[in-house]
Amino acid sequence: MPGVLYLHGFCSSSKSAKGVFLSARFKECGIQVVLPDLDEGDFEHTTISRQLALVRRTARHLRPSMVIGSSLGGYLAALCAARDPDTVPRLVLMAPAFDFASRISLALGPRMTAWQGERSLPFHHYGLQREAPLDYGFIEDARRYEPFPAVSVPTRVLHGRRDESVDPALAARFARENPDSDLQWFDTDHQMLDVLDQLWSSIQAFSGLGRTGQG
């Protein structure tokens, strides 16, 4: 089975808890997981376009059996599948951050005005474990992309009913609009760290590995 490509979320890194957990589980099945740092070491100047370009390059090279994305990584995975379906045979989207540009603007509220005026705003970067500035070009670029990509490959969406960061209604809308997708709910929040074993069971079954990992 070819490798799996894992895409972390906003302000995260290749050392994200879910990515590391899933990488270990796939390794037990003899499958490599590639976990790129989507900001390529330059968080301040990262954009959706730069991250998407990295994902598309990596997918074309790796030819993965599956792309898994968490939060913003889920949105990027869907954008990639919409543009390069031949390189993305199936998707797993965990709490995918659809309609990203609009939602981050609403979440920031008055801070959006400061971000636009100062052209830079600090965010807590979980990978760096500190505050890190992000250029306003990030949000300007994000507004170029469709909020709900049209995906034609088999897709499993995993979402927490208590998600406080990404409205569960967005996952439900995506599932309605994309007939090749199915949506599974979990009694958890956006991080989903308390349901890792359940997530793995769902991903394992969807990947065709079976319960024993010998698919």
Explain the overall architecture.
By secondary structure, the chain is an alpha/beta fold. Helices cover 39% and strands 18% of the residues. It is built from 8 helices and 8 strands; from the N terminus they run E-H-E-H-E-H-E-H-H-E-E-H-E-H-E-H. The chain has helices spanning 17-28, 48-62, 72-83, 100-108, 111-118, 137-142, 168-177, 196-207, and strands at 4-7, 33-34, 66-70, 91-94, 120-125, 130-135, 155-160, 181-186. The strands form 2 sheets. It has a 6-stranded parallel beta sheet with strand order 2-1-3-4-7-8, sandwiched between helices. Mean pLDDT is 94; it is low at 211-215.
- Relative strand content: 15-25%
User: What is the H-and-E element order?
Assistant: EHEHEHEHHEEHEHEH
Low-confidence runs of at least 5 consecutive residues: 211-215
Radius of gyration: 16 Å
Arrangement of strands in the largest sheet? 2-1-3-4-7-8
> CATH first level: which class?
Alpha Beta
What structural category characterises the helix and strand content?
Answer: alpha/beta
Number of domains: 1
Main β sheet profile? 6 strands, parallel
Mean pLDDT: 94
How far apart are the first and last residues' alpha carbons, in Å? 9 Å
What is the number of helices? 8
Helix content: 25-40%
Using the coordinates shown, work out and report the CATH topology: Rossmann fold
- The assembly state of the depicted protein chains is single chain
CATH superfamily: Alpha/Beta hydrolase fold, catalytic domain
Counted beta strands:
8
CATH architecture annotation = 3-Layer(aba) Sandwich
Give the overall form. globular
